[in-house]
């Protein structure tokens, strides 16, 4: 594409802002309104009882379980709540370690600490997902679970990760918060670990603003998950021969479930749309100097919501971000280009109280130091990663504008930036 770069005074590729993200929100329509009104008309928004309950949460649980191919599902209030419930179902507690990928939202770490366990961070592979070889390096006799995060709509390479878990007798937990609808070699994400979770928060694939889901094939894990989201005590027949334990309230509302039942019906239409739009962006970037499309363990299983790119160097990435913003097609830099363990609270191991922490040697006999150098591959890779956030509002013309912007910018990279990137 010809023309002077916008950062040098030329005309930008695009004069109007790109559409926003929030894919689930962009498909909210009359169906969701009617579903919510139906619950309100029955005056029964609580999932377990009321004047005229419809048990919508039960229906959503059955729908998601069938869609994922699991026996059981438990609706909860958020993705973080789902992680806490899943970890507690696994019995994670003081003195235990949970392996977490270096690239994820800090809610994953918060959930581990909420269970009074210690997060241990594993490095990444070239797909920006947790690396099985790195998990093998940090797994210990204290490891109670490996949390695999399917990052930005793309499945992690599950077969070697499952093999590591099996070899060491450690359960794998799939965090599918960002990747509802993604697949790995024909299997839906959320169908491979011992117990797995989804999120329906505002940024997620389908959304009710908040909400989460725990899925498993294990009857015993399911009972423990049901108890964990309901004060530690299951109801009805599930309570038989079940010793209650201390728990909290993470129960999903009927209003949340009503929205999500309608959102699930629209998933395939939404996914097909963003895959089509995203393919235009990725095709436009192929073969450009200094950047490549994010590799994937299974490209066919990409949910399609976040076309990702890896630049040749952090300096080139920073320059490209500025140049693309000037062209009217700004690209996002996830998590500030840093591993999750660089989050202030994690570095400081700062709790909400001044008493003993999960790292206290009264509970934990391992070593868990956080800071620069912990996961070198992640620290080298993440400053070079960028992405676009797609939704139903994106058109093919929007995608063509992005592709044109990438081509215009990356074909005019300053020679010194390309040379430095090639040397490094």
Describe the structure in brief:
The protein has 424 residues and is α/β, with parallel strands linked by helices.
Structural descriptors:
Aspartate Aminotransferase, domain 2; seven-stranded mixed β-sheet; three-stranded antiparallel β-sheet; 36% helix; 424 residues
The percent range for helix content is 25-40%
Binned strand content: 5-15%
- Output the radius of gyration: 22 Å
Report the sheet with the most strands, covering strand number, pairing sense and barrel closure.
Answer: 7 strands, mixed
Low-confidence stretches: none
What distance lies between the first and last C-alpha atoms, to the nearest angstrom? 28 Å
What string gives the helices and strands in order?
Answer: HHEHEHEHEHEEEEEHHHEEHHHEHH
CATH superfamily of the domain at 30-266: Type I PLP-dependent aspartate aminotransferase-like (Major domain)
Total strands: 12
What's the pLDDT, averaged over the residues?
96
Quaternary state reads: single chain
Discrete helix count: 14
Task: Give an overview in words.
By secondary structure, the protein is α/β, with parallel strands linked by helices. It has a domain at 30-266: Type I PLP-dependent aspartate aminotransferase-like (Major domain) (Aspartate Aminotransferase, domain 2, 3-Layer(aba) Sandwich), CATH 3.40.640.10. Helices cover 36% and strands 12% of the residues. It has helices at 30-41, 56-68, 79-89, 107-114, 132-138, 158-168, 219-228, 254-265, 267-285, 314-326, 344-348, 376-381, 396-410, 415-423; strands at 72-76, 97-101, 118-122, 143-149, 171-175, 183-184, 187-188, 195-199, 212-216, 291-293, 308-311, 385-387. Helix 3 packs parallel to helix 4 (107-114), helix 3 (79-89) crosses helix 7 (219-228) and helix 9 (267-285) runs parallel beside helix 13.
